[in-house]
Amino acid sequence: GDSVTQMEGPVTLSEEAFLTINCTYTATGYPSLFWYVQYPGEGLQLLLKATKADDKGSNKGFEATYRKETTSFHLEKGSVQVSDSAVYFCALTNTGNQFYFGTGTSLTVIP
Amino acid sequence: KAGVTQTPRYLIKTRGQQVTLSCSPISGHRSVSWYQQTPGQGLQFLFEYFSETQRNKGNFPGRFSGRQFSNSRSEMNVSTLELGDSALYLCASSLEVVGNEQYFGPGTRLTVT
């Protein structure tokens, strides 16, 4: 069945460091891919998405490219801030509208 | 447009009791999904409702049930509560468009003592 595997955390970075959180997926057909972010005490918020191969999703300095050949959707940011500290979830949806989430990666950015 | 709302935000119940949680989706969204989030198990899918019908179901015991009303509002019920049911319960809604994102509510924090 469909599934998402993402990099285990926690990840701790210094402010202005480069961030990569790896995400790979298993799915039939052509899923849509997402990154969600969860701040403490809140629900999940959509960060970015890509709906077809080679699409690049971007938002708030974060980017991820849908790579069908490597079945990956890695999240990157060139310079993280303390306010980026949160838990990040990779997810996919396919036909049938069911979503599959990764286990989440906790990011802490220290000043 | 108002976001997904969940009530109540916090609940404390005793083992053996039952609980009902409510979710109001974004206006126009007909798909509602429920998730359980715990530190140990992460985000686990409970079920999805569309047009008052359960369309997808996760791997949870029958104590967990749900329903959806004609206005797309949804409720989930947990009977005979166990300590392990303590979790953040998240509701998400989406448009019935393949590939569309889900929008999450703030969650209901359930504590079972």
A few lines on this structure:
The complex is a heterodimer of chains A (111) and B (113). Chain A has strands at 3-6, 11-14, 19-21, 23-26, 32-38, 44-50, 56-59, 62-65, 75-77, 86-93, 99-101, 105-110. With 111 residues, chain A is mostly beta strands.
How would you explain this protein's 3D organization?
Chain A is built from no helices and 12 strands. Chain A is mostly beta strands. In chain A, the strands form 3 sheets. In chain A, strands 2, 5, 6, 10, 11 and 12 form a 6-stranded mixed sheet that branches. In chain A, strands 3-9-8-7 form a 4-stranded antiparallel sheet, with no helix packed on it. A two-stranded antiparallel ribbon of chain A has the order 1-4. In chain A, strand 5 and strand 6 form a beta hairpin. The mean pLDDT of chain A is about 95. With about 110 residues, chain B is mainly beta. In chain B, about 0% of the residues lie in helices and about 55% in strands. Chain B contains no helices and 11 strands. In chain B, the strands form 2 sheets. In chain B, strands 2, 4, 5, 6, 9, 10 and 11 form a 7-stranded mixed sheet that branches. The model of chain B has no long low-confidence stretch (mean pLDDT about 95). The chains are: A mainly beta (about 110), B mainly beta (about 110). At the A-B interface, strand 5, strand 6 and strand 11 of A face strand 4, strand 5, strand 9 and strand 10 of B.
